[in-house]
Design a protein that fits this description.
- The complex is a heterodimer of chains A (about 325) and B (about 325).
- With about 325 residues, chain A is of the alpha/beta class.
- Chain A is built from twelve helices and twelve strands.
- In chain A, strands 6-7-8-3-9-10-12-11 form an eight-stranded mixed sheet, sandwiched between helices. A four-stranded antiparallel sheet of chain A has the order 2-1-4-5, with helices on one face.
- By secondary structure, chain B is α/β, with parallel strands linked by helices.
- Chain B folds into two domains: about 220 residues, 3-Layer(aba) Sandwich (Rossmann fold); about 80 residues, no CATH class.
- Helices cover about 30% and strands about 25% of the residues of chain B.
- Chain B contains eleven helices and twelve strands.
- The chains are: A alpha/beta (about 325), B alpha/beta (about 325).
Chain lengths: ~325, ~325
């Protein structure tokens, strides 16, 4: 298998520049600094064609930023995205357009990503017409085809987004992404807002589409049981860094990084029975001011002096398994 | 058997809208004993939150409790004057909301709000109330509570705010607490911390609790008993482990099977066909009828409640332990 997408040392920093008053104050001797948040830091991973990569982490860990960077919505501050062997920065306009169409994103809340004033057939059919994939005359038939593909009744095509239930709206969001024949879907918490029974329906749709259309997914979620079900490999992120990357089965059988272990043991499980909870203490620190060394060391039961001072790099510790932890350095 | 702290009998809360009467809560009965946690599970629109609001008398127009009884330690709550309800709320019974900012006032310091909550119910000196507030924060695992008391809500993280809301709910050692999805908006590790605190406080204070959630796996680790709601009615009720291991109502069984587990990784999940019905159009018939594999002519009448071994199930065709274990036995499989 060949890598369809290669993320090479991608960092994304968001900067809030100083305003005029702060600049003036600095001239007078104040020390205002611009606010910098490093949302993702030196992230490297590859995704093979047809693979599902799960991206897991708590809020603020940078998983959505990474997804958006991959989908071309954010530009990486450092590092490179390589699509089918070609660097994004080296692409000409035509190649870039092809890339943007090939990588589509499905958002958490289709209510905020669908225009409330447009009928869904328009929402689904607009992009392929704009990009010259189909002619305007074909637009209606094409939208019907897309809606059918995601399991929506085509007779609903003249309705507005608010007339649908949450699950149906998510299907519209998927239909719109599929309309431009993508090869790669970034699903950002796409099922988090849905009820349990509807969640199962959308997960099944993703599984079916993957087989029918030979899609590759980056599946971003905080829900471990869903990620476990759908992903081939899982990357776990903490405060902007990937701390562990492993095949799903091996990760769940034997997590290597202490943070992965904590996440897995705390995930609620239907089959657990009544139990006592043994949570790891502390909270995710602010990304504005992350801890030194290993970001996880203030909460880690195994932390040493080395963890406080030196950042562990993500390295291969077993075939297919990578982790960023000093415990596994040898 | 001890007397339950909270017992609800045939509660009916209806909303009188222009489109018709919405029976959000339709004839439900529940009871919770001291120190016990009842998990009230259902999907959006099943009436689980309205049940919680009804208990504390928080249902607003156009909603009204039209029938039934809610007893807190034997004392009837329905029909009590507002002034009496105010003394109970925050004192003998309290509520934790999904969004802690529904509990907290954004323009007051935490200490002001906590001291006020204590002194509204008890005549104690400020100093003593402050100490109790501090101890309350320490109890829910907030580090350096003295400093946190001086903070405004926006200075705290989401998990911290929810801890403060929980501390406030427990301040006056209530007999009973309703927790309405308090961990839904939180991260996994923080959720686990909150669940641990809630479990510990209930055990120590012998508080009875109803934990409302849409997430079966949360109550699996937390609750003693589980009640499953569907379209305003409780369809199944019983000890948590028994309900999860061998569900008797086809809806419960379908819900459990649609949660991804360690088996069948990568394959299609079981899915319940169809959608939740509109509450406006419900008649006497079983509300789950259209989506159920076992439905027949009998299901057009009101389903009877069968009791067996401390478990209740509202169904004409309750599943036996052996049929429920069969794969795909609960409801028809459908293609999307």
């Amino acid at each position: 298998m060949t890598a369809i997408l290669d993320v090479q040392n991608v960092s994304k920093t968001f900067v809030t520049p100083l305003d005029l008053a702060e600049k003036l104050a600095n001239l007078m001797g104040a020390t205002n600094r611009e606010i910098r948040v490093q949302a993702t830091s030196d992230v490297s991973l590859t995704i093979d064609k047809g693979e599902v990569l799960g991206l897991v982490g708590e809020s603020g860990c940078g998983k959505s930023t990474l997804g958006r960077t991959v989908a071309g919505i954010h530009q990486a501050s450092q590092g490179e995205i390589v699509w089918k062997g070609k660097k994004l920065s080296a692409m000409n306009a035509r190649e870039k357009r092809a890339y943007v169409l090939a990588v589509q994103m499905i958002f958490q809340d289709p209510f905020s990503s669908l225009n409330p004033r447009r009928r869904i057939a328009q929402a689904v059919g607009e992009a392929p017409v704009a990009h010259g994939l189909i002619s305007r005359k074909e637009q209606d038939d094409y939208a019907v085809e897309m809606l059918t593909r995601v399991g929506l009744d085509p007779s609903l095509r003249d309705r507005y987004p608010h007339q649908f239930s949450g699950g149906q709206r998510q299907r519209v969001g998927i239909a719109r992404a599929l309309a431009v024949n993508p090869e790669f879907l970034v699903c950002d918490e796409s099922i988090a807002a849905l009820d349990v029974s509807v969640q199962a329906q959308i997960i099944n749709l993703f599984i079916d589409l993957r087989e029918e259309l030979d899609l590759t997914y980056m599946f971003i979620s905080h829900d471990l049981s869903v990620v476990r079900h759908i992903s081939d490999r899982v990357a776990i992120m903490y405060l902007g860094r990937v701390v562990e990357l492993a095949p799903t089965r091996e990760l769940f059988a034997n997590p290597l990084h202490p943070y992965s272990a904590a996440l897995l043991s705390e995930a609620p499980d239907l089959r657990s029975g009544k139990r006592s909870f043994h949570p790891i203490s502390g909270e995710v620190p602010s990304p504005l001011n992350p801890p030194s060394g290993c970001h996880f060391h203030p909460r880690c039961p195994h932390s040493t002096d080395l963890c406080r001072t030196e950042r562990p790099v993500l390295r291969q510790v077993a075939p297919g398994r990578q982790t960023a932890c000093h415990l596994h350095a040898t | 058997m001890t007397n339950p702290v909270l017992s609800i009998d045939n509660l009916q809360t209806h909303f009188f809208t222009r489109a018709g009467v919405v029976k959000a809560v339709d004839n439900i009965s529940l009871s919770v004993n001291a120190g016990e946690i009842l998990g009230l599970v259902g999907e959006s629109g099943s009436g689980k939150s309205i049940t919680g609001f009804s208990i504390l008398g928080l249902v607003d127009e156009p909603g009204r409790i039209v029938g039934g009884s809610i007893k807190l330690s034997g004392e009837e709550l329905i029909g009590k004057p507002e002034a009496a309800l105010r003394r109970i709320r925050g004192g003998r019974a309290s509520m934790i909301f999904q969004d802690p900012m529904m509990t907290l006032n954004p323009v007051l310091r935490i200490e002001t709000q906590m001291i006020e909550a204590i002194r509204a119910h008890e005549k104690v000196p400020r100093r003593e109330a402050w100490q109790r507030a501090r101890d309350g924060l320490a109890q829910v695992g907030i580090p350096s509570p003295e400093e946190r008391l001086k903070c405004y809500p926006h200075e705290l993280s989401g998990g911290m705010r929810q801890r403060v809301a929980i501390a406030i709910a427990f301040l006056n050692r209530p007999e009973f607490i309703v927790a309405d999805e308090p961990t839904t908006a939180l991260d996994v590790t923080i959720q686990s911390q909150i669940l641990a605190e809630a479990q510990k406080l209930c055990r120590e204070n012998r508080t009875a609790m109803i934990w409302i959630t849409h997430d079966l796996s949360v109550v699996a680790g937390l609750a003693d008993t589980i009640a499953v709601m569907y379209a305003g009615r409780i369809v199944e009720n019983g000890p948590a482990e028994a309900v999860l291991r061998s569900p008797r109502h086809p809806y419960t069984s379908g819900l459990i099977k649609s949660v991804p587990g360690e088996h069948l990784v990568g394959q299609r999940l079981f899915q319940i066909p169809g959608m939740t019905p509109s509450l406006l159009k419900l008649g006497e018939a079983c509300a789950f009828k259209e989506r159920c594999a076992y439905q027949d002519d009998a299901c057009s009448a009101a389903p009877p409640i069968s009791m067996e071994g401390g478990r209740a199930c509202r169904c004409f065709h309750p599943l036996r332990a052996d049929t429920a274990a069969q794969s795909g036995g609960a409801a028809k499989e459908s293609a999307p």
